[in-house]
User: Fold this.
Amino acid sequence: MSDKTQWKTWSLISRMRLGLVLLFVPILILGAIYYYHMIVTLQRDLQQQLVSRNDQLHNVLIKPYLDTLTTQFELIYRNINYEDFIDNKITHQSEYLHEWRRYQETAGLQYIYVGTEHRQLLVHPEWQPDSNFNPRIRPWYQLAVKNKGKMVWTEPYYDYIYGTLSLSLAKTIEDPTGKLVGVFSIDTLLQPISKWLNYKQDAGYQMLVNGAGKMLVHPDKELLFTPMKDITWLSSFTKDKGVFHDKESGMFVAYNKVDGQDWILVSVVPESTLQGVIESVSLNVQGIIALTCILYLLLAFVWSKYFQKMLSELYGVIKSSRVGTMKKPKNRMIELSHVYDEVEKSTSELSEARLLANYDQLTGLYNRRFFDVKINELLESEISFFLAIVDLDNFKAVNDTYGHQVGDSVLKRVAKLGNSIFHEHGWFCRYGGEELSVILEVRSSHLAAALLEDLRHGVESLDWREEGLHVTLSGGISTNTVGMKSKDIIKVADELVYKAKKEGKNRIYCI
Assistant:
């Protein structure tokens, strides 16, 4: 192309661009101002409503509930006589159990109990601990001892046996000289809070998280005690309460820090709730812009062929980069030169990102995303396979006793051992938290069970440098049949895991 021809081309494009700008700039500016003003007003109103609802839930539901529990605790604690718990044998047991039964029935408490320095335990509802049970090493006991003379709340925990979310309140029992006699504690349920927070919600939901972002209350029970999806929100919870708009997730978020607890009440509403009103505003703006469409169409006809060529080149660039190669056309358009440069730089990065998206960073196992894709692929292809879900026994106690670094080390070693066993037979994945899953493409249920037993024995035999640390796991194995969906197979395996936990742990059950 000669310099003269090129000059004429660019001169024409410049004149066309100038014409479009002159036609549309005033209308677009006025329309954009009106549209932006309406959206900002609607968003501000929604945020105010969200803050008001979050305050109401905090002040009317959560705070009174915790205050009531504190009052009930103090009433029962006042009737504790340290002399009844000072010897090897607890005295007046029947009187205490009778009184506690009355409180338990009226206040909705789960358990009321006292552990002593002589390793004795008095509990209602009654149950008989084994001879090795030592209340002094329990987290509630140790937390109370560290805060001697003060009433303390423990971290919430999930009772896998009864399927309940529980919370403990504890305080030391001392003689007149200040000598420790034991610890009094009550267990209560968090289910009422969960029920209240998400009762008949038209849009959005509420959740209760701790300071580390772990979800204590959530409408989806399967997500309890897992990190919240948008963990970056924690950095925005800087004040006692507040509200913000997370553009990345498309959510409006209000939060309140719960008094006396390391909890945060979070109310979430998707910005899509404003979509209907925004669409109405958008129609008004579009009606104004439509008045200039006739003039625009005349200019657009001239530009159509030029745009078609540009789109064709863009399609070729995107298609070649998607498969990891970069093919440059012989006669590249000048306007696309920067696009070619950027796509060429990002092609290798995208390939690496696709690979990393399928792996869990901590364990090196396949992640939940890969698990969901793989299991659906196998179901669609009607290939017979086995699904095993395993759960590390008492993993919360490992974290509580030895720290999360040791917990991470346990997950890594179990992952490494499992990879050595399953790598030729299937895919070993981190399902979530301490739950792991294995997709086995083998023909025999006996082989699937044998592989899982190899993992169980191997984990049980691992040596740890931490004194007293012993790791075991429980699991369940299911298989697919005609018509089953992924959730059905997972449900069967989960039920077998629950059965293994309930019947003693450290075992594998196969359907």
Observations:
- The radius of gyration is 31 Å.
- The domain at 368-510 is CATH 3.30.70.270 (Alpha-Beta Plaits).
- The longest helix spans residues 3-78.
